[in-house]
Fold these 3 entries.
Entry 1:
Amino acid sequence: MRRSSSSARPPATNGSCGESTRRFDFAFGSEVVIGPRLQAPGWRNAITYVTMVKRPMPLTTRRTSSLLITVSVAALGIVVACSSSPSGPTTGGGTTGTGGGNTPLTGLTAVVLGVADIGMCNQPEAAQTARLVAGLEGSLLLAGDIAYFQGSAANFRDCFNPEWGRFRGRWHASPGNHEYETAGAGPYFDYFREAAGDDRTGYHAFMAGDWLILMLNSNIPAGRGSAQWEFARRQLEAQRTPCTMAVWHHPLFTSGPNGNNAFMRDMWSLLEASRAEVVLNGHDHLYERFGRQLANGTADPVNGIRQFTAGTGGAELYNFVRAAPNSESRIMRFGVVRFTLRPAQVEWAFLGVDGSVGDSGLDTCR
């Protein structure tokens, strides 16, 4: 993935989140990008591009060698002062389109909240994590096992929707094994609709700021040459921004009782070759962060990927059964992991329902 040659500097913000003004300074002759497809939840009229190539534009104030663009965020209905809202899926779902991040850098920062293993009836912790999420900015990345135990329509209605349904419009989802306890994960796809992808394969892609986010399905074939692997390959080949996150349910590496899931190794290798930064999983009901490592488990701070497991959304927590190689943080606590996605950097923090910050760090995209 090659970096954009855009000369844009990160935008400054004036005012509050609801009435903010965005200022973008660009050198004349460069490409000006307000998008791509910046959307607030529920906003259907997307701003895609504003471009200028070696000529002045309307809506400008001329300075010595720069172009000043002022955009009223409130007028556009786009919330970018606090965080950049992710675009809708960049493909028509699983196997169609080439999508991906084939646009210059926007310079915007996006915030996403990762969590899995959530709605278990008679477990009060799902309500606690929902209250935590309600007080946080950012879109939700749900990494599977969302409604226990069968992923049935009744489970979604009774065990997930009462506390988490209010976040509809903020989320993207990947299915877990419990969703497939009901044939074809039908109620899952019915509940999440376009937030689970458009064609019921369970995988799709979208942009969050300058990051490509791949929402994948570890319950179906993901090996080299599979339809899902080819989908991810096309997305990665089309990408023109430097940072990638992938989300699926079953972790390749874990210190938890469910053990490693080698069937996702080919997907990891593909991401590794494409210089991805972060993989987010669930399945084991605990929080764990690994240092950068290769698909074979070898630590590699230069070429490896950093994995997070956040199965801490409300289902009963698991004990760690070992300290896996390259595991750098292990926490048994309900909460969510917040990722602040900058154009060439990721910052993370595991936020507990008790108000604690159990783990935090910063890394640069490869």
Note: The first helix runs from residue 73 to 76.
Entry 2:
Amino acid sequence: MGAQDSIGDGGEVVTQGGGAGRRLRDRRAARGEAGAAQEAGAPRVTGKSPPRVVLDTNVVLSALLFGGGPAARVRAGWQSGRFAPLASTATAQELVRVLGYPKFRLSAEEREELLADFMPWVEVVQIPDSPPAAPACRDPFDLPFLHLALAGRARAIVTGDRDLLVLARTRGLCPVLGVDAFCRKFLRADRAQR
């Protein structure tokens, strides 16, 4: 996040001036084209399938737009094949919609570039017409993420959303983790050596 950005009460990114487009251009210029090509490399191939993980929209936004701290570790994790992010039609559409918010000040080209930094690593899950029974949720807009986790047999849901975090110990649902807890559990440095 930029110095003027914060995480809102619901885990959303709150941008106050400057816009993400400027930060994206600055980061792109700082890393140069060689860095961009290296970041866009194919996922690591190993004999073992990586854990399947649902990242909520705000976690993906933080990793793509602001890229510092734990968000940078999440991005490096999906790009190195340490875990496989899952997406459904509904969650991908939400990401595209949110990237278009005026507060981020992203051009169509910048939005496409950000999606290209995420979508090649995504495992798409088809949600059945009758989605799996999800636990009761306070926010109906979170249901697509719960359906995705259940249909995709996710090992974790990663979120900053309180409405999802309260489901952390729900029977029949994978663990619901904040970003820091996810990094500790799935992205520890010693796990990379195994």
Note: The radius of gyration is 16 Å.
Entry 3:
Amino acid sequence: MAKKTNKAIQAEILDVLDNIRFYIQKDGGDLKFLKFEKGIVHIQILGSCVNCALIDITYKDGVETILKEEIPQVKSVKIIQEANPTDKKQPYLQINKISPFKK
């Protein structure tokens, strides 16, 4: 059997993520595939998933398990929780705009 290219594996990852995205979006969250490197899928979480207490259950136990079952080359999932203020999907309360102390 020929070894899959990184590009082919990434296409499979994107397909799997697209199939499960609906369930995450139902709760106001979303995910963004960043890269696949050395068996690790890097995913940024968005929306209500940022700082969610159930992040390990949803992503590590859920998304990682599904990806590993579907794609043998996937060894783990790394979750990136960086907030991106330009992302309209993420709910932000901009304190500096409502602060009574702002001049």
Note: The CA atoms of residues 20 and 97 lie 36 Å apart.
